[in-house]
Amino acid sequence: MVSTTDLPTKECRNSLSARTQPDVVSELIEKEVFKGFLYGPFKDPPFQKYRVSPIGIAEGKYSGKKRLILDLSSPHNDDKHLSINDLIDKQDCSMSYVRIDDAIDVILKFGRNSWLCKFDISDAFKNCPIIPSQWPLFCIKWEKMYYFYVRLTFGCRSSPKIFDHLSQALCHIAENNYKVNSILHLLDDFLTIDPPDADGERTMAIMMMIFKKLNIPIAKHKTIGPVKCLEYLGIILDSEKMEARLPLNKVDRILDNFTQVMIWNFFTDASSTKGFGGYFKGEWFYSSWPSNIAYPDKTFSMAFLELYPIVVSAILWGSQWTTKRILFWCDNEATVAIVKKGRSKCLQIMKLMRKLTWCACKYNFHFSAKHVPGYQNDISDALSRLQIDRFAN
């Protein structure tokens, strides 16, 4: 597992994720001790020479499940003290994993309505013991107390390879001793596939017997089959419809992310003698110029007047634009340039730009602008000229 056990004693500081979540760490350590994966606590170091590696907390991106991780790649950039992972040969631990395409190929081979069963080993790596002579290399320290692992840990370079030997042995026994038609695995996840005319219940019974005889625990809530549709490696395999598709929750996440990054288009226009208006996703506004902008065609530039409805739109609808990218379509090229740069030499225009920027910060949206020829900006043009009948038609 590790090329040498003769290492100088070194204690590394725990990671920030552990130090900021002490209650979570304490609870997870208690569970590891209760299950017999971790020995301790000890007030004094249990070995003469030992290595304390940092512990951290890894959280599932979508499940939110928190897991205790041992950082065996620490210390980093330390010539005097190599990390535990530095002492494990990369080539010896290299391996290839099953692909979802491999499962699809078997289903295509067996045909429509193939039978599927799925199994998941509980506590995965922790089912494999560490050689006692290497226990001193897998120590942790928490709240001034020492512990050491006696089972494979997450964070160790060789853990996946070692555990995979157990998984391969299970597959070999199933295929050669009990004639299971086809079995695939990715570390602790197993999938069996049987032809439509085979007895899927037999395969399920055989696999359950193998796990029980070898005293390997499986997650009952993840044990499924025989069925014609299940999720494996994050993809739904449906032998009845002959489909491989994403689960609905993943589709929803993709659509949510798409909605968050997609550009929302917004059209505005201003008439120097009439007023201003804007249109966005079926909603619209229009108004004549307020009293504090008297004689707009003589006092203010068209760049200012065209920017005005853009700012109004941000005030009205900014709360709907959170995490969105807003693209303002405007038929004044000077205004487009000002919005894209975010600045102008004109003090009056800068007052509007500051207001627009403030709205973007307040509601958390990103904005830009693009020029649209006047003849293509017909809806906003009608609003800015207060021509409601023309807008409605």
CATH topology of one domain: Nucleotidyltransferase, domain 5
Distance between the termini: 77 Å
Radius of gyration from the CA trace? 32 Å
Tally the beta strands: 19
Determine the CATH superfamily of one domain.
Ribonuclease H-like superfamily/Ribonuclease H
The profile of the biggest β sheet is: 5 strands, mixed
| Fraction of residues in β-strands | 15-25%
Anisotropy-based shape: flat
Residue windows where pLDDT falls under 50 for at least 5 positions = none
Structure keywords:
393 residues, alpha+beta, HIV Type 1 Reverse Transcriptase, Chain A, domain 1, Nucleotidyltransferase, domain 5, four-stranded antiparallel β-sheet, Reverse transcriptase domain-containing protein, RT_dom, Rev_trsase/Diguanyl_cyclase, Hepadnavirus_pol/RT
Topology:
Layout lengths: L9 E2 L4 H4 L2 H14 L2 E5 L8 E2 L2 E5 L6 E5 L19 H4 L6 H11 L4 E6 L18 E4 L2 E5 L9 H19 L5 E4 L2 E6 L5 H14 L10 E4 L1 E4 L2 E4 L4 E3 L2 H14 L1 E8 L4 E6 L2 E6 L7 H4 L2 H16 L7 E6 L2 H9 L5 H17 L2 E6 L6 H7 L3 H5 L1
Parallel strand pairs: 1-3, 15-18, 18-19
Antiparallel strand pairs: 2-8, 4-5, 6-10, 6-11, 7-8, 9-10, 12-13, 13-14, 15-16, 16-17
Describe the model.
There is one protein chain. A five-stranded mixed sheet has the order 17-16-15-18-19. The protein has a four-stranded antiparallel sheet with strand order 9-10-6-11, with helices on both faces. The mean pLDDT is 86. With 393 residues, the protein is an alpha+beta fold. The protein is built from 13 helices and 19 strands. A hairpin with a 2-residue loop joins β9 and β10 (189-194). The chain has helices at 16-19, 22-35, 90-93, 100-110, 159-177, 200-213, 248-261, 296-299, 302-317, 333-341, 347-363, 378-384, 388-392; strands at 10-11, 38-42, 51-52, 55-59, 66-70, 115-120, 139-142, 145-149, 183-186, 189-194, 224-227, 229-232, 235-238, 243-245, 263-270, 275-280, 283-288, 325-330, 366-371. The protein is 35% helix and 23% strand. Among the domains are: 10-93 and 129-156, HIV Type 1 Reverse Transcriptase, subunit A, domain 1 (HIV Type 1 Reverse Transcriptase, Chain A, domain 1, Roll); 262-392, Ribonuclease H-like superfamily/Ribonuclease H (Nucleotidyltransferase, domain 5). α9 crosses α10 and α9 packs parallel to α11. InterPro entries: DNA/RNA_pol_sf (IPR043502), Hepadnavirus_pol/RT (IPR052055), Rev_trsase/Diguanyl_cyclase (IPR043128), RT_dom (IPR000477). Residues 1-237 form the Reverse transcriptase domain. This is Reverse transcriptase domain-containing protein.
